[in-house]
Amino acid sequence: MCMNNSMCGCSSNNNECENLGPFLAVDAACITPTKPVSTGSIIPFASGTPTALANIESGLFTAVSIVGFGTNFPNIGLSGNNIDLSLVNNLFTEAFVVPRPGNVTSIAASFTVTLAITAALPGTTVVNARIYLAPAGSTVFSPTNVTVNLNPALSGVINVGTVVNNTSNNFAPLPVVAGDKLLMVFSITTTGTVADLVSAVTGTASAGITID
């Protein structure tokens, strides 16, 4: 009788099988490995309408944009290095609440210029995307190491439709716990500018992070 398969080369309807062996083992090196299935969650962000980023003095940014899920709030001032929503009476937020413990392991971002810069930008301007975090019960968001600079850097005359983008997992995983609040923040930094000369860029912003 067939033990391995009811029709394994059987020559009759009685399932009498003559092909009982021998059986050949497959070399493990010949087996294509199964790709691991990612268990992380992808969190998307998009500004919806264009948002403005501004900077004054070399290397310092003063007006950032908070990007959420189809909306954004531009021209947000920093309190030191932090974003304190209580300073605007908590009238808005683009933060989302983490529902379970995990680690933020990657970030990707893109920025598309929607307002041409016909007067050459002073120095070199780099668009940056970074996650800010506030613990449960707090309105003060602090910058984290989950960040990426977008390429290429902007300089000179900038045309509408210019796109800068990048991805990164080149940082230690950021632990998060249930109740933490996360913000996606876009900013620009400049180098080689003349003091007190403002650099500004306007465009649509989008990003994504992975939480494992």
Would you kindly provide a written description of the structure presented here, covering whatever features stand out?
The chain has strands spanning 41-46, 51-56, 61-67, 72-76, 83-84, 96-97, 102-113, 117-134, 140-149, 154-158, 163-168, 174-176, 181-191, 198-211. It has a single domain (39-211), classed as Jelly Rolls. The relative contact order is 0.27. It has no helices and 14 strands. Strands 1, 2, 3, 4, 5, 6, 7, 8, 9, 10, 11, 12, 13 and 14 form a 14-stranded antiparallel sheet that branches. With 212 residues, it is mainly β. 0% of the residues lie in helices and 50% in strands. The model has no long low-confidence stretch (mean pLDDT 84). The protein is globular and about 85 Å long.
In the predicted model, the low-confidence regions spanning at least 5 consecutive residues are: none
Rg calculated over all Cα atoms: 27 Å
Quick one: biggest sheet? 14 strands, antiparallel
Tell me the CATH architecture. Answer: Sandwich
> What structural class do you assign from the helix and strand content?
mainly beta
Query: What's the overall geometry?
Result: globular
End-to-end separation: 50 Å
Question: What oligomeric assembly is this protein in?
Answer: single chain
How many helix segments?
0
Strand content: over 45%
| Element pattern in H and E | EEEEEEEEEEEEEE
CATH topology category name: Jelly Rolls
Which whole number gives the mean pLDDT? 84
Helix fraction by DSSP (H/I, runs of at least 4):
under 10%
Q: Name the CATH class.
A: Mainly Beta
Tally of strands: 14
- Domains (count): 1
